[in-house]
Every structure is written in structure tokens, then in C-alpha cells.
Batch of 2 targets.
Target 1
Amino acid sequence: MNIKKWSALIAAGVLAASLTLFGCSSGGDQGSTTSASGTDAGYTLINDGKLTVAASLDFPPFENLNGDKPEGFAVDLMGLLAEELGLEVNYLPSTKFDTIVPLVQTGGKTDVGVSSFTITDKRLQQVDFTDTYCNVNQSITVRSDSGITDVSQLEGKKIGAQTGTTGYEWAAENIKDAEVTGYDEMTAVFAALDSGQIDAVSVDLPVANYYVKSYTDCQVIKEIPTGEQYAIAVSKENPELTKALNKALQAVRDNGKYDELVAKWLE
Ligand code: ARG
């Protein structure tokens, strides 16, 4: 590798490291938009007065189920955004992750998809995204007794990830000869690691950090500076809703409530 590439990589690493610490802090000055609000806003809703949300509720600390109640950073954030818009939030029953973007795209079932969606070129062809609300990196988790301490040792090994995620893609593209298995639910991926069906998990770092707390024999061995940005998925047919959500996002950044959520869930 030439020097230019290395310094770019180092710069990316430094940037990523600072994002890890402050990835979800405020200070984003994402452009906001029109002054539209409430029912005159020009957007459409599945149910009047309600913001209907599709989510895969298996991704703590962002969106998870506490009994049958959705909870997490993004769930609270959606509550705040809806409040700004004068709407109630209505979470649909937990939805399989890789079906949510198509669901938003097709229309008729949900107003938004909120599932720690990393903005990707492929998804941008299917849906619109709001301004970003969080920055994260990928990570690799293994069993503590596995003797695996570096990604290079994963060559030819079994990796697990949630189907349709950036973690799945990262593993498939970057780990030589890896056998990557996709699972519907994040919980199943960690259960498979714990029981020895797979050798490593590839997932967004804050989520890995959360899961290893309940699987004490597992540890995160690597942060991968992918520099991903989370945003809310909205139908391309409903651009005024994207605008309204961006305006609400800016408002909760400005009034300090966004920072309270960061402190509550992510620090
Ligand atoms: N950020 C990753 C992606 O966009 C993983 C998101 C998984 N979300 C979830 N709620 N299970 O592909």
C-alpha cells in the first residue's frame, strides 16, 4: 500500500475513533427545511394523527423490546420527533429487518422505517433518508475462550450476522473464505455464537457492546472504522414527511433533548 493510502486510512481511523465517542452527540447542523407543520404539512400518513413506525426490535440500545414494549434510543427519539410534529407514535409489531426498506418503499403499511438503518447507496435507490441521527462503526465479537484475538484469524471461519445488514456485507466482503450465515434476529446471532455454532459476530459496535454484557463469555476484539450513519427511511413518495422529520430532528438537537437521550442510552 502506498503512503497516500495509509494516511487516508489513518485519517479514517482517527475520525472513526472520535465518532465512537461522540458519534451520537449533537452538533450536527443538518440543513432543515420548510416551515410546514401539523396537518398542513403536505405529507401523508397511514393513520391520521399517528406516525406509524416499522422496526426490527432486536437492536439494543437503539430499538429493543422490553416485554412487549419498544424501548431504546431510537424509540425515545421517535417519541420526541412525533411530539414536535403533533403526532402520536405507533410502532408496528417487530418486523424482520430486511423486509422494512421494501415495506417503506411499497407504501400502505408504515410511514417510516427506524431500525438503525445505515445510509447505503443501495437503500437510497429504494427509499429516502432523513438527516442522520447517529454515527457508528462495525465490530467483531468472539467467544473469550476461542483464542481469536485478530480478524486475520477468522479466515475460513463461520461468521454470523443479521440478514440484510451492513455487518453481514462487511464480513462477506472482508473476511477471506468466511462462511457467513444470516439470521433473522440479532438475538439469534449472539445465541449461535454462545452455543458454538459460529465463531464470530459482525455487527454495529454499540450493539455488540450491549450484547456482550449478557453473554459474559464473549468479547469484542475489533472495532472496524466503517463510519456508518443512521437515518430514518421514508417513502420517496412522501418527501414532505422527510422534510418535517428533519425539521423536528433539528429542533430536538437545538433544545437539548437529543443530548439527554444520548446520555440516557449511549454513554
Ligand atoms: N446498521 C446496520 C444496517 O443498517 C444494522 C441495522 C440492524 N437493525 C436492527 N434493528 N436489527 O444494516
Note: Residues 1-22, 26-38 have pLDDT under 50 and may be disordered.
Target 2
Amino acid sequence: MEMSQPVPELSVVVPLYNEEESLPQLVDQLLAAVRVLDLPFELVLVDDGSKDGTAKVLSALAATVPELVAVLLRRNYGQSAAMAAGFDASRGAVIVTLDGDLQNDPADIPLLLAELNQGYDLVSGWRHQRQDAAVQRLLPSRIANRLIARVTGVRLHDYGCSLKAYRREVVSDLNLYGELHRFLPALAFIEGARISEVKVNHHPRRFGQSKYGLDRTFRVLMDLLTVWFMKRFLTRPMHVFGLGGLAAMGLGLMVGLWLVGEKLLLGSDIGDRPLLLMALLSFLTGVQLFCFGLLAELQMRTYHESQGRPIYRVRATLRGNA
Ligand code: UDP
Ligand code: MG
């Protein structure tokens, strides 16, 4: 019988889309970086429906590297989903993620783990000397980073860096939709995680090409809106929609009453007044917003109760020894 592997304490999760050329080197570098730590680990490499030979190379590697867990997705789902698949397949109490294109440096992993052990739940890499195109990548990313820091309240320099270390609880509390992997620190922060940052290496892409262009900036902004809403109003949507709805209804009602007053007291013709249109629109919009808020309240209850998602996260419960 084959000797069974010990349960891993560390899981390294890497999403791969058309990275056949970097894959062998990636595995070599990961093994070199992690073996010296002298703790049971696994490499969870996820093929995100690559069109090139990634799946084949990965399967071949899985046959020779005992610590390798290869997850082959049926089609291309995107980086967030690939990472989520990796998280689900992983078993370690600590999870490290990085990109599969060798832009992140596996040699930085021990640094992240050391910082995590200082009592953090999430440690994010900061590509302080980032090696990407200036105009298409660095500028939008700088603006996005500022904005994200501002909106989410998590003070990180670099949200786009995939090289991160997490405690498992942090990851299993989160669901990743869209391209929300970038917002993992923000989402974790909403759930009460302690977060830190360390400077890491960054290399230019050597093989293949980036899967993203300038259009990503736009999608990141949309995701940011979602995260902002979740942070502020997830458990009390009525506070946004209800307030907006009441204000719009009130405005519509007041303007409408004013017009009725003019009509009755002064006998003026109000049929073709722009104000009439405004009053109507405002009132109707208000009613809509208000109802929307009520529906959101129901939806929020379904969200939390159907999945047994508590509205709080406990770090520890300490009981006196009675
Ligand atoms: N990736 C993926 N699925 C996709 C797109 C990308 O798994 O649909 C992986 C890709 O193989 C890489 C990581 O996500 O390991 C980051 O992608 P990329 O290097 O293209 O992004 P960039 O570094 O340019 O931001
Ligand atoms: Mg890259």
C-alpha cells in the first residue's frame, strides 16, 4: 500500500489559464520555496479550462509530485471561480494564493507566513516595484487602489496582487462572485479579519500574455460598488432605499400639493407645467424605491437564514471555568 500523505497544514492555491510554459518552473519554484518550511503542504493547481496544454502538463506533474492536487475545470470560468475551486479542494489551515505566470515569486511565501504568524488573518503582497505596462496597467491600478482603500476602509497599497496568505476561516466565510478575488481583503475586513501587508517581488511576464486589458478597470469599479454596498448596508438595505424612497415621495407630494393649491386658489392652468411631470416622477420613483427596500429586506433575510450565515463573526468565546 502507498504511504498516505499527512494532512497538509499549508495549501498553495494557483489558478492557471493557458500557462503551460510556466507550469513546470512554477511547480519547481513552489516546491523549493515550501519544502524548506518543513511542514506538511499541498499545491492545489487549478486548470481554468485552458485552451493550451496546461491540463496535460498538470496531469503529468500530478503523477510525479505527491504533494500536487490538480483540479481541472470543465471550461474557463475566470480567475475568481478558479480560485474558489482551489479553496474548496484545499485542506490546509493556512492558504497561500499566487498567479501561475511566475510574475509572483514563490520565494516570498515564507515572508507572508511569518507575518501571518504575527497574529493576522490575512497578509497581502505589495508589488512595490511592479513590472507591468505603465499606462494600461499601472495608472488605472494606482487610481483603483486609492479608490478601493477609500471606499472599503482597508489600508492596502496593492489590491491586485494575487500573492496573499489567509487563515482558512477567512476564506471559507466568503463567496467569490464576478471578479471579487481582488476584494478578498475588503470582504474579509467586513467579516472582521485582521489584515497586514508585506512587500513582495514582481517579475515581468515571461511566457504567454496577460488575460486582462484596460476593460478590467471598469469591471473593478462595478465590483467596488457592490462591495461598498455590502459593507454599508448588507443587513439594513431599507436604510438606503427607504430613506431615498421617502425623500422622493415627500418631494413629489409637496410639489404636487403646491400645484393643486395654485390650481384651486389662483385658478392657474397646471396641465402643461414641467413641475407636474417632476412631481409625478418623483412620487412614483419614491414608491418604487420604498418597495425595493422592502424586497431587499426580505432578500437579505433569505440570504442570511437560508445559508445559516450569521450577521456577525466571533473570534473567540471565553467562558469562566465554573
Ligand atoms: N487566470 C485564470 N482564469 C482566467 C484568467 C486568468 O485562472 O480566466 C489566471 C492566470 O493563469 C494567472 C492569474 O489568473 O495565473 C492572473 O492572470 P494574469 O497574469 O493574466 O493577470 P495579470 O497578472 O496580468 O493581472
Ligand atoms: Mg500576471
Note: The pocket of magnesium ion (ligand 2) is lined by residues 99, 101, 103, 205, 210 (CB under 6 Å).
